[in-house]
Amino acid sequence: NAGVTQTPKFQVLKTGQSMTLQCAQDMNHEYMSWYRQDPGMGLRLIHYSVGAGITDQGEVPNGYNVSRSTTEDFPLRLLSAAPSQTSVYFCASSGLPGTSYGYTFGSGTRLTVV
Amino acid sequence: AQRVTQPEKLLSVFKGAPVELKCNYSYSGSPELFWYVQYSRQRLQLLLRHISRESIKGFTADLNKGETSFHLKKPFAQEEDSAMYYCALQGGSEKLVFGKGTKLTVNP
Fold this sequence. Notes:
By secondary structure, chain A is an all-beta fold.
């Protein structure tokens, strides 16, 4: 049981480049979320999804796109990377209330934009 | 709106001393509250959820609805408890909102 898998673990981008951070879970969880973690800021919610085909914005959505075509996958796209997007990105998933105990997190993607 | 406040960015205690990490929340309904722990450069792990009323690694947390608090406590801190601790709230929507975290250092 792999849980939540994020790829890549590390990435360096040049300003203006695009990329997709991958997230997959094998627990059949309905809820999936993307967070960014910055020193002194804690974890801030970027986008989240409550099921396939349904996504919504979190606290800091600008510069990021998401889609949820399957229950398992929830990729995060940076269309034109900026240095302000240098951060550690975490994907997380959770089952419906009463079916699982809180969100399970991936191991993170450390992104540097130069 | 959902909001979680962790007033202490840093907390330092000696081994064997009691520790309390504070968490206050703002939410108009009945929230579900969690504590997550992140050891150095690792993924976040669920430590406690208020509904289960468990004790994990000696930590406990009680939801005080009157004071809108969910403080994390341990009577005798250990060096291996050194980590970042995040309080989180899940309200009526499905999203999970975090506080800014408290870095706990347990000195020998």
